[in-house]
Amino acid sequence: MVGLVGILVGLEIPLVMRILKREVALKDLVSQVLTFDYLGALAVSVAFPLILVPQLGLIRTGLLFGLLNASVGFWTLWVFRHELRLFAAHAWACVLTVALLAVGFAMADHITTLAEDKFYHDPIVLAATSPYQRIVVTSGKSGHKLYLNGNLQFAERDEYRYHEALVHPAMSAYGAPRRVAVLGGGDGMAVREVLRYPSVESVTLVELDPNMTALFAKDPAMARLNSGSLSSPRLKTINMDAFQWLQGKEAPGSELRVAGSAGAVLPEPEMFDVIIVDFPDPTNFSIGKLYTNTFYALLAQRLSASGYAVIQTTSPLVARQSFWTVATTIESVGLHATPYHANVPTFGEWGYIIASHRPWHMPASLPEGLRFLSATTLPLLFDFPKDMARVPADVNRLSNQVLVTTYEQEWGRSGQ
Questions:
Q1: Collapsed DSSP state (helix, strand, coil) of residue 154
Q2: Is 109 a known active-site residue?
Q3: pLDDT tens-digit profile of 14-68?
């Protein structure tokens, strides 16, 4: 299909030039055709990812372009009506094509639902498309599951394993953290674990997609999963890109101003005792930038001298090279990297890395009420068997994004 479309697109320009050469001089013809072709391609290449897909969704955008092409067909049919044989047949073909595309455009949501029902094993209970991602929540025998752009983010039956392992080794080692930041994690599960500590005075949640935080704060079933953590008075939610936030930029309307200084913005970024980094895996370059040495250098500037940051770091078993690439990248900015792993049945063996200015130490105790971790079993998470042991790895930089390529290759070989 792609090959056929490519051949037909390639035939467009010579065909148009052959048709119009009777009306326009060759030099003017070439100039006009190429100008319209390039300007049209530029407009579409900008509008498709930045405007149309975020606002209309992928299916509606595809159907919209189909309608645009069909409209061109109508116009061309009218212009050349005196030169075409079987004009009525062509006209009816155009009418039927536009009608089918229009029906598809109007029923795009139903088409999406039918496609997703075949894709996901369990029934879909919530689905939403934001400018940033497709959010789908399913519910089955094992409970709720969250998918972002088709990628599983958590399963209710064992998410506690993932989030306890993510949060408590860093939080408990600090002792009595007061200021905590959670980057990503708009589902509120990591925030739920952070709020187990009475010493915590404030939690800053930086989540790009406001639809995520709204869904998991307001929907009763989702709020139950995170124990209402997104409605806590100790929580401040900032919906913006974490990279920009680390650079000291604030969300629109949230600038902190100095009294009596004619509205000058106070350029003092907040420091944190613990930073929880819960981003999706680096499946593309826009997410991969959040795993670069530039990002970790900014992270280090927001981390207190005795603080700890913890990063979810894919599977050290399936994506061994990717896991140790993150460790190498953290160390390249002068931070200590303490890797560990935990078994989460839904995902398999999963990895994390603690980043800090000082060496991490094993905590003497953990909060009460945990379902997975205990003080006696926690040291086992830091023991790596031979098939997950460290391997040489390059630094992931904005200029090379080696992690995205490595991750793609390793998970592609796994067939998962």
A1: strand
A2: no
A3: 887 777 777 777 777 777 777 888 888 898 888 888 888 877 877 888 889 899 8
Closest CA to 381 of 204, 179, 162, 190: 162
Tokens 């826009």, residue located: 286
Length of the chain: 416
Nearest 5°: phi and psi at 276? -100, 120
Q: 122, 278, 383, 394: which is the annotated catalytic residue?
A: 278
Calculate the CA dihedral of residues 316, 402, 154, 346 and round it to 10 degrees. Answer: -40
Q: Of 328, 183, 282, 198, whose CA–CA distance to 242 is shortest?
A: 183
Closest by Cα among 240, 218, 241 to 228: 218
Beta carbons within 10 angstroms of residue 75's beta carbon: 11
Which value, to the nearest 10 degrees, does the dihedral of the CA atoms of residues 158, 159, 164, 165 take? 80
- Residue 392 token pair: 């040489």
28 phi/psi in degrees, rounded to 5: -70, -35
Strands 272-278 and 179-184, sheet pairing: parallel
Whole-angstrom distance, CA of residue 404 vs CA of residue 284? 6
pTM: 0.77
Give me the amino acid identity at 149. Answer: N
Give the Cβ contact number of residue 396 at 10 Å: 30
Q: Residues with Cβ < 8 Å from 299, sequence gap 6 or more?
A: 246, 275, 277, 309, 355
How many angstroms separate the CA atoms of 290 and 286, rounded?
A: 8
Comparing C-alpha atoms, which of 312, 144, 311, 141 is closest to residue 215? 144
Q: Could you tell me which of 137, 169, 133 has the C-alpha nearest to residue 154? A: 137
pLDDT of 376: 94
DSSP 8-state symbol, 278: E
**Which two structure tokens, joined as six digits, stand for 220?**
């009763």
Closest CA to 171 of 366, 355, 303: 366
Amino acid identity, residue 381?
L
Hey, is 101 helix, strand or coil? helix
Q: At what angle do helices 58-79 and 108-119 cross, to 10 degrees?
A: 130
Residue 368 binned pLDDT confidence (cut-offs 50, 70, 90): very high
Cα–Cα distance, 136 to 189 (Å, whole number): 17
Tell me how far apart the alpha carbons of residues 66 and 184 are, in angstroms, rounded to a whole number: 36
Q: Mean pLDDT over all residues of the chain?
A: 88
> Residue 414 corresponds to which tokens in the numbers above?
């796994």
